[in-house]
Amino acid sequence: MAVSTVVMRALPSPGIAVSPASSSSSTLSCSRGVPLAAAAALKSHVANSSSADRVVVAVAGGCERRSSNVQFVARPKSAVRSSSCKSRLLQARAATAVEDGESEGSESGSAATIHGRCFVVGDNIDTDQIIPAEYLTLVPSKPEEYQKLGSYAMIGLPAKWGRFIEEGKSKTEYKVVIGGANFGCGSSREHAPVALGAAGVRAVVAESYARIFFRNSVATGELYPVESQGRICDENKTGDYVTVDLELGTLVNHTTGKQYALKPIGEAGPVIDAGGIFAYARKTGMIPA
Amino acid sequence: MATVATAAAAAARHNAALLVPKGDGGSLPVLDSGFFGPRVAFVPEFSPTCTQQNASVRAVMAPPQLQQQRSPASSGIVKHALTATEKILARASEKTQLVPGENVWVKADILMTHDVGAPGTIGIFKREFGKDAKVWDREKVVLIPDHYIFTADERANRNVDILREFALEQDIKYFYDIKDRSNFRANPDYKGVCHVALAQEGHCRPGEVLFGTDSHTCNAGAFGQFATGIGNTDAGFIMGTGQLLIKVPPTLRFVLDGEMPKHLLAKDLILQIIGEISVAGATYKAMEFVGSAVDKMTMEDRMTLCNMVVEAGAKNGVVPADSTTFKYLEGKTTIPYEPVSSDGAASFLQEYRFDVSKLEPVVAKPHSPDNRGLARECKDVKIDRVYIGSCTGGKTEDFLAAAQLMAISGQTVKVPTFLVPATQKVWLDLFTLPVPGAEGLTCAEVFTKAGCDTPTAPSCGACLGGPQDTYARMNEICVSTTNRNFPGRMGNKDAQIYLASPYTAAASALTGFVTDPREFLS
After folding, report:
1. Is A257 exposed, middle or buried (0-12, 13-18, 19+ CB in 10 A)?
2. How many CB atoms lie within 10 A of CB A79?
3. What is the pTM of this model?
């Protein structure tokens, strides 16, 4: 499946430039305050991407400590769903939204897509395994300590699950964690979703969650706590390449070729898209930016 | 001072007004009609199943015309039977009725945070409300350093300094400070473990709403209040506004009847229950404890029950307040309170009945609090250590129970036995209170005679591992009166922790094996 990546960046200079960086990707650059033009350019670009089955729009910049935020995906042209036009419109609107700082996008759900390797664990992965108590002296709101927390993510796991972060590295290669029941049980420590997010995890896909961990994941916007329909941790292996598509509600394991249904992320989606509850409140105009 | 207070109050109102406009000045707009504002302003508590349920979203930015759409049910004419938890949340959200699954804005009566949660919470608070922002109420934020106190770890010590800085800047009324780590007695304000301190200092009151940046905040449910653990972000939000969006939990009712056997303690009951419903059996739910056995329980017993509801995944635990509660609170608080209890016709998700006279001492075997086993069936498990401490099992009555058993036995411990009183007051009790039936000896004297370690400085200690130099940090097979036994909980992944009552812990110390207390208590 050919993937065309359109990366939107905020530029200091006005205007729009579309520069094909390579045959399979192009960079659409626009400055802040030119949302309508950006949306129009994006629409025409997508319409003209006849060679691509899938267009991924990644918005770079934005939230202070994340390098890439929201990803919007257009339906593959061959898809059964007739909402491809709507998706492109949503993309444009979403692009507008990001530039303007206001959201007219979906009030529920998320269009985020996450591609990457998965790390698989089992049931009752508690917060002491995700981030052992001795590391709780690190304060998540301090940027340097935030990064350090990430380097210790999952360090409390028993050896049987394998290494989450390679020796000498501070970030994980696994963008998705697949778990069983009651993921994140135990403590209320916000350090748990924070450590995972800081390490580079974008989503956890588990059979079920403990409530405080789930709530903290959404409030911080650190990762998408997605629920699978049924148990999937037994069928996926650490290292498998997966795609989590929140709009379609699927997890596709490219290594095995299997696909699994996900429960809708619902109203938590826009909050995490925005980068957490305070960012969401600002974006929706609840509190002044 | 008055200027600061006025400014602070004004700031709090400003902060709150930003997020929760009052519309007609009365109660917040009601959404029984199912109307959703033009924007989903704030999301409901983020239950994974919230999309399945018809979770009513409180549209904070709803347009004024919503007021005319209020249905009769919301105007107070129709009242439904409510559980204790629902009543507390209804009152805190100024609603006459609500149902489980509903999302409501509640006013916090107390926000507690400690040295692990506070620095991050304060960081978020300042980032979101401004460097010069003031907390919504300087008398309702209680700062209790307790987790990593008696350690040389620089960051841990720095975190207590952060608490102090904030307390001074905000003129926080309740900050239980410690400066001299070499001698905890030299710190008159220092208390120790937050949940026990909250109770002892009179911050727990029936009918109130208490949030804390610690999962065992549910401990306070013993006072007939709504108490639950939250993360730094939610706490930062409360610091600025004094409110939080909460999804009303349905209630599981546990009726505990019958005569408590002399060898059984509240810890055995809660381990029994968790073993029954599993570590996720109460997820997103409230656990209510009633019955003749509960009626006879002391406040500390009730705290033990409520303390561990989080281990079953519960949102909160609650024991309706009664004369025992009122007596405990005498002299501890001057703030008036209004107790609540479940209506007779209230709906419970499920009811469990136990005849406690038929129960036996139990343990939670490695590595899960629901891995229940009878203590007598684990008698071949050789142990390396015993740990008596924590908010769960380090209260005065916990030590009295352990000392009582040891005194009756007249024997000495076969393994290192660590004693970590939860607070300064508990520590003092160990050295002053006589153990019943021990011929006037105090707990401390009984423990010394039995060969236990000297009771150490009060804090959370090794319950959760902590910095490397934490006293009694665990790497072996241990019987403990603490609350969790997941891998690595007490400092080492290979350690094996058996959760138990103080009686079982004491009995095990005396034999060097996991031991049913009936071996010593006839």
Report:
1. exposed
2. 14
3. 0.79
Take residue B350 and report the two structure tokens written for it: 């499920």
The residues facing B374 across adjacent strands are B362
d(CA B415, CA B326): 41
Token output for A33: 């305050």
SS3 B463: helix
By Cβ distance, the residue of A108, A186, A288 closest to B215 is A186
DSSP secondary structure string for all residues of A50-82: TT-SEEEEEEES-STT-SEEEEEEPPPTT-S-S
* Residue A119 or residue A67, greater confidence: A119
For A118, A207, A244, A247, A260, the CA distances from A263, given in Å and listed in that order, are: 18, 10, 12, 10, 10
The region of weakest confidence among A162-171, A253-262, B57-66 is B57-66
CA A47, distance to chain mean position in Å, is: 25
More confident residue, B253 or B80: B253
Q: Are B224 and B318 in contact (CB under 8 A)?
A: yes
Q: State whether A278 and B148 contact (CB < 8 Å).
A: no
B21 closest CA partner among B54, B67, B56, B55: B67
Residue A70 or residue B305, greater confidence: B305
Strands A25-31 and A113-120: unpaired
Q: What pLDDT is attached to residue B370? A: 97
CA distance A31 to chain B (A): 26
pLDDT digits (tens, 9 = 90+) for A242-281: 999 999 999 999 999 999 999 999 889 999 999 999 999 8
Cα(A32)–Cα(B97) distance, integer angstroms = 47
Q: What are phi and psi of B387, to 5 degrees?
A: -125, 120
Pick the closest to residue A276 from A173, A190, A149, A151 (CA basis): A190
Looking at this predicted complex, what is its ipTM? 0.82
Q: How many CB atoms lie within 10 A of CB B413?
A: 21
pLDDT at position B473 is 82
Work out the minimum CA distance from A130 to partner chain B, whole angstroms. Answer: 11
| Nearest chain B Cα distance for residue A228, angstroms | 10
Per-residue pLDDT, B465: 84
Would you tell me how many other CB atoms lie within 10 Å of the CB of residue A255?
Answer: 14
What residue spans of B466-501 are helical by DSSP H?
Answer: none
**Does residue A162 belong to the interface with chain B, where contact is any CB pair within 8 Å?**
no
Nearest chain A residue to B60, by CA: A286
Which chain B positions have a beta carbon within 8 Å of A263's beta carbon? 48-49, 51-52
Give phi and psi for B253, each to the nearest 5.
Answer: -105, 130
How distant is the alpha carbon of residue B244 from its chain centre? 18
Longest CA–CA span in chain B (Å) reads 76
Residue B367, preceding peptide bond in cis (omega within 30° of 0): yes
Q: What is the DSSP letter of A121?
A: -
